[in-house]
Design goal:
Radius of gyration of chain B: 20 Å
Helix content of chain B: 25-40%
CATH architecture of chain B: 3-Layer(aba) Sandwich
Distance between the termini of chain B: 16 Å
Radius of gyration of chain C: 22 Å
Number of strands of chain C: 10
Shape of chain C: extended
Distance between the termini of chain C: 73 Å
Largest sheet of chain C: 5 strands, antiparallel
Oligomer: heterotrimer
Number of helices of chain C: 1
Chains: A mainly beta, B alpha+beta, C mainly beta
Strand content of chain B: 15-25%
Strand content of chain C: 35-45%
Helix content of chain C: under 10%
Number of domains of chain B: 1
Largest interface: A-B, 63 and 82 residues
Number of helices of chain B: 14
Chain lengths: 176, 400, 152
């Protein structure tokens, strides 16, 4: 057992060698750059396959659990609270309420966007409370969005739908 | 052998666990050193403080967040030789951002079970390898069917949560910005800090909008860095020091990935983890019994959110405590005296250096300029991660 | 229990044509790697020796993984002998190729390098080989700066 604990400064830290972005772009240090060629395809599974097929028809579908009485959206084949298979499918409406929202000025790679995107979590009518999905809001000024706002989905025309969440172009405020 | 009943499960603890040494590297946006070299530096510092040699280490736990940052699949194995894992039992753990406190919890299991008397815990992160931007790796955390086609950025979730928190508790952005001002100023006393500076609330409110209400000065930067700490059994701690710091409670809990099905204003995963840790540590009134806290603060509103989850403030009360100076270093309940992630940097798992390691240094009265003004006996550190899912909590004390 | 989808036409894959992972990585060489590639540009090879136990590391490192003490760099010839080899007949995309890949123990070190052997009529274990470097102006700062190994 090595003893000999020293009273050293706190925190005990070591200096790393900081680099700047130009050190990399101008190759002042050696490095290796790797561009992977990875392509993934995910199976949608039982519940999501039905969900995507229904989206192509212009409808939203949820599942229900008899034991706890919840209408679960997005649909899944098990109820995670009761931990049992669900008991049936239920169509829900394509209107909802904004639970929370944000106005984004950046794209997925952290680059700035020219026009901001309004993203919101929308609790869908017909499902249990708090059963929401994330989606984009449109046809509304960013300043006019508020929590509790009623919105309706705007669908792509039938021949352009491909069975994806983007078959709903965006959600717009419900008048009245 | 102690047998305690915790959360309905029997808990057999073979021996208590003490922390006797810790170390870290500077946190910077880009470091030249490889992940192995960074781990080596952090471990060397921890061994020096503890007064141990690498041969005394029996088992090693490595905490490191997604392989996608370093670009090395099997990252734990890759970092092994720099982390002291050669020819030893070695384990890599990973729960997203919660790894900073989850790795010491895994180290706790090794020693409390009696399988090891000396366990080294290392956390390392090299986010700068990932291009075009470290945030790009977060594109793949989202559900491929429901979320990814909308081209989201991870900051969107935080912005949605922040908006909900502000709405339900009726809090203004000015009160939340006070946290960023406090932590960045605290970090001026930390030698490893990357973004320590003196700013004002106006600077925060006028900074570049990222995803409103989140602005650039509300966010911690991506960093490279490493941290290490050493956990030992009581008889070893006695040989090394008169004042070890004991780990009295650990807890961890996760919530569902379907984050759109949750009301985001309260982190119930943190509350669950804290319940488990507080029961182990026999804490019934956290607000009075905790002397110093390091909740996870990658965003300024997150510090307040987690303070409420940890029971250090009632729901909606945390911004009031900040405004009244209770959470400053000389206040009644200092929070993030190190400067936290907002001031020092956020290398995901290596945030252990400003969470678990900082509480250790505070309780051992070795934090120098960052030492809090009041007398400290019990401290709590907490981390959080994934798609707002995991809460990991560790309670430490300098009295057994 | 609900009815399951059993018709494969109705089971979805997403995205239909596959989603590409759009990331790329820049790996810095680290302190030891930086020194190694700088010396390689001058035509020299270096290895590292632990100050405490004397273990000779190739590729060079700044720490000894067994006793965690510092190392010091020293020069080696870069020549070695073949410890094992294989003939690769398929590349990453399963296209045909033909290359001899060998594990070469470098003289005066305890370490080995994996590299390609060319200009050899036949390869056998124990065969002595030496490195052929690229021209300094073509060097990029990674292991391909050593073009290949050939018999002495």
């Amino acid at each position: 057992m090595a003893v000999g604990r020293k009273k050293i400064s706190c925190p005990p830290y070591a200096e790393g060698t900081a680099l700047s972005e130009r050190d990399i772009s101008e190759r002042r240090v050696t490095f290796f750059e790797d561009h992977p060629n990875l392509v993934y395809s995910w199976t949608a599974g039982q519940a999501m396959s039905r969900f995507l097929n229904e989206l192509k028809n212009g409808k939203l579908i949820a599942t229900k659990c008899e034991k706890c009485g919840r209408i679960i959206f997005p649909p899944r084949i098990y109820c995670e609270l009761c931990y049992k298979p669900i008991d049936g499918w239920v169509y829900v409406k394509d209107t909802g309420t904004v639970q929370t929202f944000s106005i984004s000025y950046i794209d997925p790679d952290a680059r700035p966007l020219e026009k901001p995107v309004i993203v919101a979590v929308i609790a869908v009518d017909g499902a249990s409370p708090n059963m929401g999905i994330m989606h984009i809001l449109g046809e509304v000024e960013p300043e006019k969005v508020y929590i509790g706002m009623r919105v309706k989905a705007v669908w792509k025309p039938e021949n352009e739908r491909e069975g994806a969440i983007t078959d709903i172009k965006y959600w717009k405020p419900l008048e009245g | 052998m102690e047998v305690e009943i915790v959360k309905g499960l029997k808990f057999h603890k073979k021996q208590d666990v003490a922390i006797v040494g810790a170390g870290m590297t500077t946190f910077k946006r880009r470091l030249l050193e490889t992940g192995k070299e960074l781990s080596y530096f952090a471990v060397k510092q921890a061994l020096e403080e503890a007064g141990l040699d690498i041969k005394d280490i029996e088992m090693v736990v490595m905490g490191s967040a997604p392989d996608a940052f370093d670009g090395t699949a099997l990252k734990g194995e890759y970092l092994l030789d720099g982390a002291g894992g050669s020819d030893r039992p070695y384990l890599r753990v990973f729960v997203g951002g919660g790894t900073g406190v989850f790795a010491p919890i895994a180290g706790y299991w090794h020693v409390a079970s009696g399988l090891a008397d000396v366990c080294l815990v290392v956390c390392e992160e090299k986010m700068s390898c990932c291009h075009p931007h470290p945030q790009s790796a977060f594109k793949y955390i989202w559900d491929p069917i429901l979320d990814r086609p909308l081209k989201p950025n991870l900051i969107w979730i935080f912005a949605l949560e922040m908006r909900r928190y502000m709405h339900v508790n009726n809090i203004r952005h000015e009160d939340i910005a006070l946290v960023s001002v406090k932590n960045k100023a605290n970090a001026l006393d930390h030698p490893c800090a990357q973004v320590a500076e003196k700013i004002t609330v106006e600077d925060v409110l006028n900074s570049e909008p990222m995803a409103l209400p989140v602005r650039r000065l509300d966010v911690s930067p991506p960093s490279d860095g490493a941290a290490a700490l050493i956990m030992v059994a009581p008889h070893i701690a006695r040989q090394l020091t008169d004042e070890p710091v004991w780990v009295t409670g650990v807890g961890w809990a996760l919530d569902t990935t379907h984050w759109t099905n949750r009301d985001l204003y309260f982190p119930r995963y943190v509350a669950e983890a804290a319940k488990m840790a507080y029961r182990m540590a026999h804490i019934t009134d956290p607000r009075k019994q905790i002397d110093v806290a390091e909740p996870y603060d990658p965003f300024d509103y997150k510090e307040l959110h987690h303070m409420e989850g940890l029971g250090l403030a009632k729901k909606g009360e945390a911004p009031i405590l900040t405004r009244e100076g209770v959470t400053a270093r000389d206040g009644d309940l200092p929070v993030c005296p190190s400067g936290g992630l907002l001031g020092v940097g956020n290398p995901i798992s290596a945030g252990m250096g400003v969470k678990a390691c900082e509480i250790y240094w505070q309780l051992a009265y070795r934090a120098g300029k960052r030492q809090v003004a009041k007398e400290v006996t019990t401290g709590v550190c907490q981390a959080w991660g994934d798609l707002m899912q995991v809460g990991t909590v560790m309670v430490m004390s300098n009295k057994r | 229990m609900i009815e399951k989808i059993v018709d494969p036409e109705k089971m979805r894959h997403f995205p239909p044509k596959g989603g590409k992972i759009e990331l790329y990585w820049v790996y810095t060489s680290g302190r030891a790697g930086e020194e190694f590639f700088r010396k390689l540009r001058e035509g020299k090879f270096i290895a590292a020796k632990c100050k405490k136990c004397g273990h000779r590391y190739f590729p060079p490192r700044i720490y000894c993984e067994f006793d965690f003490s510092e190392t010091e760099f020293y020069e080696i010839t870069g020549e070695g002998c073949v410890e094992a080899f294989t003939v690769a007949t398929l590349d990453l995309n399963e296209e045909p190729m033909e290359e001899v890949i060998a594990m070469i123990k470098l003289d005066n070190t305890d370490g080995r390098i994996i590299h390609v052997i060319k200009d050899a009529k036949e390869v056998c274990i124990g065969m002595k080989v030496k490195p052929v470097l690229r021209r300094p102006e073509e060097m990029k700062g990674n292991i391909s700066d050593i073009a290949y190994y050939k018999p002495v």
